[in-house]
Give the backbone structure.
Amino acid sequence: MSSDFIARIVGMIVFGVFAGYLGGTWGETVLPQPVIVYTVVLTLSGVLVGLVLTPYITTRPMRALRSLLGRVEAQTLVAGLIGLIVGLVIAALLAFPLSLLPAPFGEILPFIGVLIVSYFGVAVFVMRQNDIFSIFRDRMPRRKGADDAESDTAGRKVLVDTSVIIDGRIADIARTGFLTGTLLIPRFVLNELQYIADSADGLRRQRGRRGMEVLSQLQEEPGVPIQISDIDVEGTREVDDKLVILARQLKAPVLTNDYNLNRIAELQGVPVLNVNELANAVKAVLLPGEIIKVDVIQEGKESGQGVGYLDDGTMVVVEDGADHLSKEIYVTVTKVLQTAAGRMIFARPEEKSQ
């Protein structure tokens, strides 16, 4: 039984009783018709109004408020609460002198002052929350060394996408310490991961379970702070859209290796940490003329070509490499091509280049 349904039933009863009471009162004092007529008409009207309007003035505003509070950072909530308290204290000090003014100002201005001063207190503290909290952080005693660097990045959040969990390389990257801050994993990302792990397709199910194992490994790592949050975004069901909206609200980068999510986030001004771009960036830089060793494992698309791979997964297309299948040979790099899928190296057998 939903909360909206319960609210409608309660609203029907409350509005019906109240409207019936008004109908009986008006029928006895003002209106010329029999009392029962007004009582029945207004009771039915109150029941109808309560049935239609009750969720809009009870459960739905509360649901919207809960969703809004769920998207707001804890630091912002604390700053707003402190600003409200300061505003109420100042308003209480101003209430007495304002109440001494002649009527009607002495009766109205104290209440208006409470509203205005409280609003400005919340607004000012929320706008300057970083400056205010930095004052307290600077006054707290800190240990020297690595703790200083840790304190600088402790408040940083990194939103984690489902694709990067399934990929598995996030565990190795986080272990190296290159990812600073807290890895924030929203609940809807875990739900998508669980949906993939329960898929009827065997390959998708295997990938989902691998993602679960990677997440368990990350939680066991003491140097990798992970936070699983129930924070959600109303109005959209797509995980990628939710991640982009959350990243904009939290001012946090998105960690992913999904090309489409990468493009969408960049178009909306959201910083992206792409694992594939990181992998390409740390690959060894090879220049034309260098000699490398490669194992030719298959034929290429063009006649006579052979294809091999380096240890980091870089594809090497060997001219006339078809004659060296299943052999490990030395090749001379002729060209390096950077593509969207990664880096591709063209080479010829070293004995031919001589």
Summary: Residues 144-153 have pLDDT under 50 and may be disordered.
